[in-house]
Amino acid sequence: MIYFLYLVVFFFLFPSSFVLAIDHFSQVLIDPGHGGIDTGGTSGKRTSYYLVEKELTLDVARRLAHELRKSGLKVILTRTGDRFVDLDERVNLANRLGKGTILVSIHFDALSNRHARGIKTYFWHANSFGLATRIQRSLVKITGEKDLGVIRRRLRLTRNPTIPAVLCECGFMTNPYENKLLASASYRNTLAVAIGRGILEEKRLGDFGITPVAEIWAPLSKASDSPRHAHHKKTKRKKPVKKLEA
Fold first, then answer.
1. What is the rounded distance in angstroms from the CA atom of residue 89 to the CA atom of residue 186?
2. Is the pLDDT of residue 190 over 70?
3. How many alpha carbons lie under 13 Å from residue 92 in its C-beta half-sphere?
4. This prediction's pTM
5. What are phi and psi of 8, to 5 degrees?
6. Mean pLDDT score of the chain, rounded to an integer?
7. For residues 173 and 128, is the Cβ–Cβ distance under 8 A?
């Protein structure tokens, strides 16, 4: 009885701590961004290592899958090889898997501004904020990279899934310093470990201790919303690319 009273008092003093917005999950859908004819961004020729986003995303996704499976979670990848998967097809898979699953999409940035650097995590739905926050905190803490924050953005992979969904931008291929890091297999493994720890922390704690955000209604996102965004670009590779360090 006394324990129950303590819980009641704590609830009134710290109500946000009791908001477990995210449903319990036992399965993770990992989405390696881009693939096939959709190469995503590239580092360009001015960097030490010529990097292609679709290759980085798949490499980190495979490493993340290994980390999560070691912890007992079920893992599905939207692609396991270099093939094109339409964004709507990725969303449909997430929605078919449904309750008990979360979606984590992996991407990398590329800008003409070579000074831009850092890591950020996108979300849209309120039930994805805790997951995005824990992943972002873990990425910044473990890598030591610049914290660009948790950002609410209506992307097809954050708005359209009916399950909790986040999209991680894990660094700038075009930044000279981060370019060298991303070319390293050990650093890409560090990224996978960091994302994995954020996911596992959310599984253990839910949104406990994270101030909730309000749900915002918006129409489904579609390709025409951001026709020039890197996530929607389809390009054909014009030059051979050396394989990433294994």
1. 31
2. yes
3. 5
4. 0.86
5. -60, -45
6. 88
7. no
Residues in contact with 182: Cβ distance below 8 Å, sequence separation at least 6, in sequence order: 49, 51, 56, 108, 170, 171, 173, 188
Confidence of residue 19 (pLDDT cuts 50, 70, 90): very low
Bridge partners (DSSP) listed for residue 169: 107, 120
CB atoms within 10 A of CB 113: 9
Residues 55-84: tens digit of each pLDDT: 999 999 999 999 999 999 999 999 999 999
Residue 189 makes CB contacts below 8 A (sequence gap 6+) with 63
**What b/e readout covers 47-74, taking b as 16+ CB neighbours within 10 angstroms?**
bebbbbbbbbbbbbbebbbebbeeeebe
Give me the amino acid identity at 233: K
Residue 3 has pLDDT above 80, yes or no: no
DSSP SS3 for 20: coil
Residue 144, phi then psi, degrees to nearest 5: 75, 10
Any bridge partners for residue 167, and if so which?
Answer: 105, 122
Q: Cβ contacts of residue 164 below 8 Å, gap of 6+? A: 22, 23, 25, 102, 103, 125, 127, 128, 131
- Band (pLDDT 50/70/90 cuts) for residue 114 is very high
Is residue 73 a contact partner of residue 27, using CB atoms and an 8 Å limit?
Answer: yes
